[in-house]
Amino acid sequence: MIQCEGGVKLKKQEALGLFRKLLLGRLVEERIRKEYPSDQIKTAAHLGIGGEAIPVGVGHCLPKGTKAFGTYRNHVLYLSMSDDVDGFFAEMYGRLTAPAKGKAGSMHMCSPEHGLMATSAVVGTPIPLAAGAALASVYRQSRELAVVFFGDGAVEEGVFWETLNFASLRQLPMVFVCEDNGLAIHTPTSERQGFRSIPEAVAGFNCHVASGDGSDLQGVIALTREMLKRMAEEPKPGFLHLTYLRFLEHVGPGEDFHIGYRRRPTPEEAERLDPVRRFEKELLQDGYSEPELEAIRIEVARQIDRSVAQAQQAPLPPASELYTDVVTG
Length: 329
Prior knowledge:
single chain, alpha/beta, two-stranded antiparallel sheet, 11 helices, 42% helix
């Protein structure tokens, strides 16, 4: 099991850029929460508040040419890889100006030109797609990396174990990233999994395994860098297990602690498990100034305002769009 303690050395612009990505993901989803009751947003929304450090941190370490695949909880992954706020909100509002002309919605965001090849609403389906991309790179002798993000619920799908077995057997250049919030919708891990822990179960395969706190951006970066280093030294797949707190309900803009299937975190726990607030505090402790961070907040908020206004004014797709960009057979 790979262990990696302590923070990472970040150059100033690198650190501020990471803060911007975390903040962009958070403020975009907070804006969705605000706009959702108006019913103008034309898609279901699985918000990832609390999990931002995983796609931002892992994505920060990926080499050029990496092909990424993700889940329906993909907003921060999409934004951190593409920085396309205009396209994101156009897609959320179902507009013709969106990258997929409103067909992708929240759950199928992708940006192949930025390396995000596909995301899917069907649990587990991106996992073999990533293996296919990794296998193709082996045949091309480029050994470009493939990375797939999935939740702990996907570990209970047969396709996860089949793909992990195949990737380990063929030593594919592939990273499995398990975003573990301890819940499959409302069902906790203890009621679903008959093994002691996911990392222990995976460790029986011929792959590198690492586990860490997905709320700690610097820890995620350190762990991912060490994983990629080990994979370069001993070519075989990597498995990153990162835990985090899902602050909101499974799908939708609200909280759901009142339902009773999980307890509300204490204020101290919420502070510690909030990756945006945590990294902000670390930056301030390292000597960054509040005005520097506030300038980023203002810039990001203005960008979101512009993108939302633009999406709201953009045209809806005509009925004829039902028959375009559709593959059959």
